[in-house]
């Protein structure tokens, strides 16, 4: 085992020990199912269903992710642990939709069939790039779940509030593992890692876009929780850079080089730090969708 692999393995063991001692929760015993609000709005249920839909692509996330890092013991075992925790998320959200009476088993079965007609593919193709992609999407997911936890509490649905609370705790723990691995990678190869970070920022798009049925209309409802461009800048991008010890100007310089590589081809909307730093368009929520 190389020095780099040993450091990453130690990061996984630290993550795993904390998860086992402090963070494990039980779908059947820890969720206050008796406190579900069956009179909560359809908008609340639609958002829960959308989260559940994105979580349903777990087979694609796991198979693609674990095969990419299978030769890196610490990261491969993290992917296995991640799969277990994420499987609880989709199962818990399904149970909420059923127990709240917002959806029937037939409706959820039909939704699953629709979802599985599409396949999620890796947006990046190196372990280092996907590690940083995982960091960004997990932090974004954490922020979104926290926002919707507040929304559930506002509708007096203590059951759904608790569901979002447990899931958010998992998401930020996943983000911290990725961040700690990236710190190790920065120590080993700062310039190369910064280049990959810049490439991911410049081309970032969260899972769900183009594969979840009726995605555009779902997103309009999810934005009502208050997740917009400024939230992504202040709660996702900037905290990640601060945690990693990467200066904003250092990242902007790397991003300019990454953005130059995109010139001449078909460009997607700029969701980089540089692009997000401009005055936000109130009709544009920044990076869209939600992932496990």
| Range of helix content | 55-70%
Number of β-strand runs: 0
- Provide the gyration radius in Å: 19 Å
SS-derived structural category: mainly alpha
Distance between the termini: 30 Å
Mean pLDDT: 86
The outline comes out as: globular
Strand content: under 5%
Q: What's the number of helices?
A: 12
Task: Walk me through the structure.
- The protein is mostly helical and 292 residues long.
- It has 12 helices and no strands.
- Helix 8 crosses helix 11 (248-260).
- The protein is globular and about 55 Å long.
- It starts with a helix and ends in a 16-residue tail after the last helix.
Short description:
67% of the residues lie in helices and 0% in strands.
SSE layout:
Elements: H1 3-23, H2 42-55, H3 58-68, H4 73-99, H5 105-115, H6 127-154, H7 158-188, H8 190-202, H9 215-222, H10 229-244, H11 248-260, H12 273-276
Helix pairs in contact: 1-4, 1-7, 2-4, 2-9, 3-4, 4-7, 6-7, 6-8, 6-10, 7-8, 8-11
Supply the key terms.
292 residues; disordered C terminus; 67% helix
């Amino acid at each position: 085992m190389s020095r780099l692999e040993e450091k990453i393995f130690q990061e996984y063991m630290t993550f795993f020990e904390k998860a086992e001692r402090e963070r494990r929760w039980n779908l059947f015993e820890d969720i206050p199912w008796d406190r579900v609000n069956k009179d909560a709005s359809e908008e609340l249920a639609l958002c829960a269903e959308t989260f559940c839909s994105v979580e349903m692509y777990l087979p694609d996330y796991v198979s693609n992710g674990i095969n990419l890092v299978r030769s890196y013991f610490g990261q491969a075992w993290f992917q296995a642990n991640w799969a277990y925790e994420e499987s609880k998320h989709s199962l818990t959200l399904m149970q909420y939709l059923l127990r709240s009476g917002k959806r029937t088993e037939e409706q959820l079965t039909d939704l699953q069939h629709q979802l599985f007609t599409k396949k999620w593919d890796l947006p990046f193709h190196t372990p280092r790039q996907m590690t940083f992609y995982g960091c960004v999407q997990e932090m974004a997911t954490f922020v979104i779940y926290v926002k919707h936890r507040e929304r559930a509490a506002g509708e007096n649905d203590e059951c759904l509030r608790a569901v979002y609370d447990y899931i958010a705790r998992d998401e930020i723990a996943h983000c911290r593992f990725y961040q700690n691995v990236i710190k190790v990678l920065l120590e080993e190869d700062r310039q190369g890692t910064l280049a990959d970070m810049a490439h991911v920022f410049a081309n970032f798009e969260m899972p769900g876009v183009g594969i979840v049925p009726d995605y555009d209309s779902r997103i309009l409802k999810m934005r009502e929780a208050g997740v917009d461009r400024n939230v992504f800048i202040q709660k996702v991008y900037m905290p990640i850079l601060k945690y990693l010890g990467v200066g904003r100007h250092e990242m902007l310089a790397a991003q300019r080089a990454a953005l130059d590589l995109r010139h001449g081809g078909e460009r997607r909307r700029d969701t980089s730090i540089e692009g997000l730093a401009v005055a936000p368009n109130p009709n544009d929520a920044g990076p869209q969708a939600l992932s496990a």
